[in-house]
Write a structure and sequence with these properties.
Length: 121
C-alpha cells in the first residue's frame, strides 16, 4: 500500500510565499515522475509543475518564474515553493506520483488528498 501525504497549505496574503511538501510512503521500489496539480472552485484540475526522477522540470505558464518544484529522492518527497502568490493561485493542491511497488515492480499513478492554499487579504 502506498500513501501520498501533502502538507504546507494555508492562508497567505497576496505576494506572500508558501512551501508545499508531499511525502510518499509504503512498499516503494522506485518513483518516476512527480507533480503538483491544483483545482480551483468551479474549475478543472490542472497541472502546476512536474519533475522527472532525473530532475527535469516543467511548469504551467501561469506559475513560471514564481513557483519552483524540487524533490528529495532519498526521502521520497516532492516540494513546491510558491512565491509571489496571487489570489488566482487559490485552490486545492494535489500531489501525484508514478510509483513502482514491491514485490512485483508494478507501476501506477497515486494521488494525495490535497491541501488548500488561499491567497487573500
Amino acid at each position: 500500500q502506498v500513501q501520498l501525504v501533502e502538507s504546507g497549505g494555508g492562508l497567505v496574503q497576496p505576494g506572500g510565499s508558501l512551501r508545499l511538501s508531499c511525502a510518499a510512503s509504503g512498499s516503494i521500489f522506485r518513483i518516476n515522475d512527480m507533480g503538483w496539480y491544483r483545482q480551483a472552485p468551479g474549475k478543472e484540475r490542472e497541472l502546476v509543475a512536474a519533475i522527472t526522477s532525473g530532475g527535469s522540470t516543467n511548469y504551467a505558464d501561469s506559475v513560471k518564474g514564481r513557483f519552483t518544484i524540487f524533490r528529495d529522492n532519498a526521502k521520497n518527497t516532492v516540494y513546491l515553493q510558491m512565491n509571489s502568490l496571487k489570489p488566482e493561485d487559490t485552490a486545492v493542491y494535489y500531489c501525484k506520483a508514478e510509483i513502482f511497488t514491491y514485490p512485483d515492480n508494478r507501476g501506477m499513478d497515486y494521488w494525495g488528498k490535497g491541501t488548500l492554499v488561499t491567497a487573500s487579504s
